[in-house]
UniProtKB/TrEMBL annotation:
The lineage of its organism: Eukaryota, Sar, Rhizaria, Retaria, Foraminifera. PROSITE patterns: HSP70_3. Keywords: ATP-binding, Chaperone, Endoplasmic reticulum, Nucleotide-binding, Signal, Stress response. PANTHER family: HSC70CB, ISOFORM G-RELATED, HYPOXIA UP-REGULATED PROTEIN 1. Pfam families: HSP70 (PF00012). It is found in: Endoplasmic reticulum lumen. GO terms for cellular component: endoplasmic reticulum chaperone complex; endoplasmic reticulum lumen. It comes from Reticulomyxa filosa. One of its GO terms (molecular function) is ATP binding. It comes from the Eukaryota. This is Heat shock protein. GO terms for biological process: endoplasmic reticulum unfolded protein response. InterPro entries: ATPase_NBD, Heat_shock_70_CS, HSP70_C_sf, HSP70_peptide-bd_sf, Hsp_70_fam. Its main location: endoplasmic reticulum.
Length: 458
């Protein structure tokens, strides 16, 4: 349970034996895990619990302003005051953390509105009551994940907690009750765990790091479909061609291939998309782009009579790959032509008496590799040379700003050191006292003080 959403994965851990090397008879134990199912709630996270406390604070702020005879219109519009709302959200987050370890806390904000200070006590019970609608949804993603994984609740050995939202005591109570008393797995740092796991997974995939290898079998959370159409419109006499199907269903293993084969005589427009029933995140388009498959018409012209005895349309085979990152690609397209030819064969069987020539019908296959060009979805543009140059320019400007900030900080530190050393010298260095008058030293001290004040306002 993170700041904005809650995600649940049903994981199966297992071990298997693997040879130390191809020539060795010895084996070693390898650890691995596979994702069986996933569920999530995009509107259930730590920020939603913060907002529940904010709502409590807003009611109290309105009461405070009303007692101080603030205009009713100003009171009604406090939610549109960005400065006030930002401070309330910051204090609400702090209060939530305090209430995770204490039963009550006090939110205190100086000068929240005009010159009015704000102070309001909050108990854990009030927080729980305001968040009841959120607590009701805590275990729902688990039910969805288990259903998709085909695993019953009694088979679950434990729940590993990740994300700061799991630190709310009521959330832990609900999860413990869900597993009917089984202890929660709290051996990972809830905040650092995801980052550490990502780094370890990257090290496993890299050849530059020597870490213990742990296998991973991940799945695609969304079903992916394909629609085939002719690249160019057909003539009035021809029937409009369209074919669709599901390439990779939900929970399909990643790093897998799937092929589509059809008899066809025209270049193809291959559209890839998430299926309508895919539980996509909010504001996520289902469009995954399309592929332009050409070379079919040209190959048909080549493999025709009189040079080749091909009388049927070619078999078009499209090979799709769902890579380890869940990205789909059309890796290859081929057109296979079946040529029928006759081969003479002399029959010297005893039944026929004298030898006769016969013709055998045989087939010869010709495979042509088609041209495949990928086109991005409508909301994604290719990263061309112009965009690359613009990104490089922006990065250089940001680097220059960072360098300027560092140089300024180093310069201010050096100036501050100089001021301290000079002031100490004016007070304690006897040589300085001998070669200068008190008026000169006071004048220099005044200049140092003015410089310090200038630095404080930088």
């Amino acid at each position: 349970m993170g700041s904005l959403s809650t995600q649940v994965s049903v994981i199966r851990f297992f071990a298997y034996e693997e040879k130390v090397s191809k020539a060795s008879k010895h084996t070693k134990i390898m650890l691995a895990f596979e994702v069986l199912g996933q569920g999530w709630d995009e509107m259930l996270g730590g920020a939603e619990f913060d907002l529940a406390i904010v709502d409590l604070l807003i009611d109290s702020v309105k009461d405070m302003l009303a007692k101080n005879k603030v205009d009713a219109a100003d009171i009604a519009s406090i939610k549109t005051n960005p400065k006030l709302m930002t401070r309330l959200k910051q204090e609400a987050q702090k209060a939530k953390r305090v209430l995770s370890a204490n039963k009550e806390t006090v939110v205190s904000i100086e000068g929240l509105y005009a010159d009015f200070d704000f102070k309001h006590p909050i108990t854990r019970e009030r927080f729980y009551a305001a968040s009841a609608h959120l607590f009701d949804k805590v275990t729902l993603p688990i039910d969805v994940a288990l259903a998709r994984a085909g695993v019953s609740k009694d088979k679950v050995e434990g729940i590993v907690l990740l994300g700061g939202g799991t630190r709310v005591p009521r959330v832990r109570e609900l999860l413990t009750d869900y597993l009917v008393g089984k202890p929660l797995k709290e051996n990972l740092n809830a905040e650092e765990g995801p980052a550490m796991g990502t780094a370890f997974r990257a090290a496993n995939l890299s050849s530059a790091f020597r870490v213990r290898h742990i296998g991973l079998e991940d799945i695609s959370s969304f079903p992916i479909g394909v629609r085939l159409k002719n690249l160019k419109p057909t003539t009035a006499e021809e029937k409009e061609f369209s074919k669709r199907g599901t390439l990779f269903p939900m929970n399909n293993r990643l790093h897998k291939r799937r092929g589509v084969t059809l008899a066809h005589s025209h270049d193809l427009h291959v559209h890839i998309f998430y299926e309508k029933d895919a539980p996509l995140p909010l504001d996520t388009t289902s469009d995954l782009g399309w592929f332009e498959v050409t070379g079919i018409k040209a190959a048909i012209k080549k493999y025709t009579l009189p040079d080749y005895n091909v009388i049927s349309p070619p078999k078009i085979h499209l090979s799709f790959r769902l890579d380890a990152s869940g990205m789909i690609d059309l890796v290859q397209g081929t057109a296979t032509f079946v040529e029928v030819y006759s081969e003479e064969k002399r029959d010297n069987s005893a039944v026929s008496g004298d030898g006769q020539n016969t013709k055998d019908q045989k087939e010869r296959r010709h495979v042509v590799t088609l041209d495949v060009v990928r086109h991005p979805p409508n909301d994604v543009q290719w990263y061309d040379a112009q965009a690359l140059e613009l990104s490089r320019k922006i990065l250089m400007e940001l680097e220059e700003k960072d360098r300027s900030v560092i140089d300024t900080a180093n310069t201010l530190n050096a100036l501050e050191t100089y001021i301290l050393e000079t002031r100490n010298a004016l007070y304690s260095n006897k040589i300085v006292e001998k070669i200068s008058t008190e008026a000169e030293r006071n004048k220099l001290l005044q200049a140092l003080t003015q410089t310090e004040e200038w630095m404080a306002n930088c």
